Amino acid sequence: TYRSFSLPQIMFELLDAPSVLLANQMEMSLYSSGLLSGLVLDSGYGLTRVQPFYLGCPPPFSGKMLEFSGKDLSTYLFSSLFKEACDHHNLFQMDTVAAVQMGKCFMPPSLEETLDFCHSLPRGSKENNTYQLPDGITVELSPRQMMAPEMFFNPHVFDMPGPSISQIILDSVETCEASSHSLLMSHVLACGGNTLYPGFATHLFKELRSGYHGLTQISVWVSENRRFSVWLGASMVSQLSTYQSQWMTKEEYLETIRL
């Protein structure tokens, strides 16, 4: 018979962990940069989330979630590269899409100017990017395919539902007290796989600067290890004695299941 396990059961009964702390992932990402206050943007394969923190605590009703993420970019590349032959379970197509995402896609400084420049180039010129498929066939990638990560900032251009990442950040900040806006906007921490595209941080900074009209400095923080920021922050917290009172020990867990 199938038996489901809760996380504490897995940690204590199967892995024999001495103690466990169920921590907020966004908070751990913030701590990985040595901050207690700031705004965390975490955009991965399945979700894009935004959460402000002030002295380690999230203000009420300030968190925002956007069901628009890396899988939408993959879906777009699948359909545009393989068209009618698109098969999301085909390993050859999956490898091709992953390679294009990681090796060819980027975030343009200006979508309109970059598109105009690419379209003005003669077909087959060096600047037109190409990609060699695993079977040896070479395909020419269109400007829209190479700049697919732009959908995070201009989803309507790719026929995707909004709002944009920059808009949910601004919406999240507006839910917080006005006195904290300056601190939050000067400590915007971007993490997650989607923030790794070249030009992401610069583009996000420009969008926030044009969308936020308060008299404050705007800074976007990015780390080379931002793909693993949750793990890094949690590893730091595990070494701090100030959090020991929040950990559940195995003895406490065993007492609760006996009740």
Question: What's the short story on this structure?
Answer:
The protein has 259 residues and is an alpha/beta fold.
Topology:
Elements lengths: L6 H8 L4 E2 L4 H8 L5 E6 L4 E6 L10 E3 L3 H13 L8 H13 L7 H10 L9 E3 L5 E3 L2 H4 L18 H10 L6 H5 L2 E4 L8 H12 L8 E2 L7 H9 L10 E2 H9 L1
Parallel strand pairs: 2-7, 7-8
Antiparallel strand pairs: 1-9, 2-3, 3-4, 5-6
Helix pairs in contact: 2-10, 3-4, 7-9
Explain this structure to me?
- With 259 residues, the chain is of the alpha/beta class.
- 39% of the residues lie in helices and 12% in strands.
- The protein contains eleven helices and nine strands.
- The strands form three sheets. The chain has a five-stranded mixed sheet, with helices on both faces. It has a two-stranded antiparallel sheet with strand order 1-9.
- Strand 5 and strand 6 form a beta hairpin.
- Helix 7 packs across helix 9.
- The longest helix is centred in the N-terminal third of the chain and has 13 residues.
- The protein is globular, with a radius of gyration of 22 Å.
- The two termini are 25 Å apart.
